[in-house]
Amino acid sequence: MIQPDLIAPCGMNCALCQAFQRPKNKCLGCRDKTPKNAKSCENCFIKNCETIRTSPAHFCYDCPDMPCKKLKHLDTRYRTKYAMSMLDNLNEIKEKGMDSFLKSQTAKYTCPTCGGLICVHKGRCLTCEP
Ligand SMILES: [Zn+2]
Description:
By secondary structure, this protein is mainly alpha-helical. It has one domain. The protein has helices spanning 18-21, 39-42, 50-54, 69-82, 86-96, 98-109.
């Protein structure tokens, strides 16, 4: 089961991230407090966003500006390159709740061969096809 803490404020599922899945220099997810190996994560505008840091639920849907220009840009990039939408994820969490979201993510991204999680950046299971 995917841990709720692995869902980033933007709706990204860190469990599916290449940086989280790799065996070496593994990232522990956006919500983890230790410094990130990946600069793109450490310098992330959402991670460093004032509204997110001070919001009680820590998700972009709590923000009055959602979707801001930057989140839209991120969403477009992920929809185009990785067939995943931050905004769809956020809406699903908001509408149906975290448990339901995690269940649907597990169903969608579980590798049929090994039962591990498919990497959203590579579009395949890194255990079965490294
Ligand atoms: Zn596999």
